[in-house]
Every structure is written in C-alpha cells, then in structure tokens.
Amino acid sequence: MSVKTYSAGDEIISKKSLIAVKESINFLKQHSREEGLFRRVGRRDVRRRILSAMTRGEKPQLGDINGAALECAAALQLFLSRLKVPVMPRNVQQLILAENPGVSPRTVARDALGLIRQDVNGRHGELLCDLLGLLRHLTLAAPPSECSELRGSPLPVALLPVFFALTPADLVKWRQVAARFSELINEAPARLRLNYNETLHPARDSSVDPTEVEGSRMRGEVDRLSGNRDLSLCYPVTGLAGERNVCEYIAFMVQPRVQVRLAIELP
C-alpha cells in the first residue's frame, strides 16, 4: 500500500496548479526578450483564461496568441497575489524590510536565502525556487530596452508588491528593499542550487561560478538602486487589482519629502 507524504509547504498550492505554473514559467523563459513582462497588460480575456487554467491546475493554452507572454506574466502575477500563503515567507519578508543599518544588501540577501533553505520546503519551496529562477533568467536575458543606465532591470521594483507585503512606511525605503531583492535574485542560483540556463552564456568557462558571470553587472544595478538617495524620481510600481488593469505610480520626492499615488485604469 502506497503512503502519501505531506509537507507543510504543500498547502500553498496544489500539485496540478504547480505544474500549470511551471508551464507558464517555461513559456516566459522562452519569451524572455518580450518587452514589458510583468509591467504591461492589454488583453483581459486572454489573461483571465490563463489565470483560470492555473487555478484549476490545467495546462495554459498559450499557443500563438498575440501578446500571450505579457498576459501570461500578468496572470502569474495575479495568481501569486491570491495565494492563501505568501509566496515569500513572512520571516524572510521581515528580514528584507528591516532597517539593518550598515549591512550590505548582499549580506541581507544571503541571510534571507539561508532562511528560505532552512524553513521552506515541499511545493512552497519548489514554487519559490522556480520563481526566483525565472526572475534571474529574465534579468539576464531581457532586451536592452528593458534596462536603463540609472535603474538597471525594472523587475525587482515592479514585483515588490507580489513578494512583499509593503506598508506605507516600507514604500518610503523602496530603493533599499529593491536593492536587497535584486541581490536575492542574483544569489539564488548558487544558494538554492537552481538550474542555470546554459543558453545564456554558451561560451563560458566551465570552471567559472555561473552566479559570478554577471555578478558585477547585477551588483552595479544594486548600487544604482541603493545609491542616488538625493535624486528625485518617479518609479512605476505596477499592480493588477482584480480584473481591472491598474497601474499605480508612486512618486517619491526627497525635497520636500512627499508621496503621491495615482491610480490610472488602462484600456
């Protein structure tokens, strides 16, 4: 008689839904050069079908649908936001969001990954590892138009509301949180032993640690996020509220320190 094993980490997602999410993750990796992943949306009907498939644990029918990658990313974002258990464990969130003055983003990220390895198991651990692997892949494979000299990749910032329960007080220090999240994504392949995509660097020396191949560039992005504290800028944080396409812009102005929130419903 077979005995089913149960892990506390399995309650976050069903086995079938996890398989459906993995299908979506693989699809997004194949379309990593698409502009606007996790930041742009358009076809609500396509997004709704993909989200419904993930929820039911069915293979999303993506095929040759125009704009499928954008809607797949948006559907995944919605799916994660509706999980009963936070995809990023609460104790890890607390560590990332804590002040920790004088501690580098990289050190905080490594401590956070240690907590993930120690405390997260079962399907929860598998889901989180797959998501961090996806973000690492998208960060490295994104087209040049997706990154800027000042801000680097927009993904760590765009996905902060998905992985972290941010309060108004946390939003004021979004640069610090984004810098730590960037390092967490960068360090995840080595710390969590994720599979590294060979196609990104086919000619690299096998003796080189894959996490260091792009390490200097990623750390440069972290420096840009954590630096420039006196620079006034407006950075978009995109979120999907229910079935509406809502893009929220949070403007931070250092002098004077003012926070402005604008909710714009997209067509």
From TrEMBL:
Gene3D superfamilies: Rho GTPase activation protein. Residues 20-138 form the Rho-GAP domain. SUPFAM superfamilies: GTPase activation domain, GAP. It comes from the Eukaryota. Pfam families: RhoGAP (PF00620). InterPro entries: Rho_GTPase_activation_prot, RhoGAP_dom. This is Uncharacterized protein LOC124294523. It comes from Neodiprion lecontei. The gene is LOC124294523.
